[in-house]
Specification:
By secondary structure, the chain is an alpha/beta fold. The protein has a single domain, classed as 3-Layer(aba) Sandwich (Dihydrofolate Reductase, subunit A), CATH 3.40.430. The protein has helices spanning 30-40, 50-57, 60-63, 71-82, 107-116, 128-136, and strands spanning 4-11, 15-17, 43-49, 84-88, 100-103, 121-125, 142-148, 156-157, 168-175, 181-187. It has an 8-stranded mixed β-sheet with strand order 5-4-3-6-1-7-10-9, with helices on both faces. Strands 2-8 form a two-stranded antiparallel sheet. Strand 9 and strand 10 (181-187) form a beta hairpin. Helix 1 (30-40) runs parallel beside helix 4 (71-82).
Length: 190
Amino acid sequence: MRNLIFFMHTSLDGFVAGLKGEMNWINVNEEMFDFVATMTDKADAALYGRITYEMMENYWPTAGEHPNASKHDKEHSAWYNKVSKIVLSKTLSEKGLVNTTVISDQLEDKINKIKKQDGKNILIFGSPTASHSLLSHGLIDEFWLFVNPVLLGQGIPLYKGVTETTNLKLLETKTFSCGVIALHYETKRN
């Protein structure tokens, strides 16, 4: 069984972006990029909401080809180009998309079917709206929350519309030199 693992940067007060989607407050460095690369090595699929997918598609396919591409850009671009993409969207069509599956209905059944397939982990990067839907169906197996040393006061909340308790077990923490603390949880199943 494949695990569905949620990766998200958050402010200390629980926002994943500013009111207009701003993410310029997120702290990242090479240490963090190297750490995330250890996670992508264990995954062969990426799951996104439509907005995040379109943002990723506009950057990652060719990011590693630029003359000034960083080590992270080269590595993540190569990973992005080879993994299967799963997009949750009611408006996007699969027509013309490469190595991409669009899920527009029957979310729980379709995600569970994918999780039962042979393969490595499935990573969710960002995609707060898609993550809210996955969480409401109990489909997320693990969480990696990257808590940034900032208070935004307002913005897009990490968890919106959660109506049921989800019990988690802390597996590990990691502190990065840029001030970010990563919290790794697994979902407790009854």
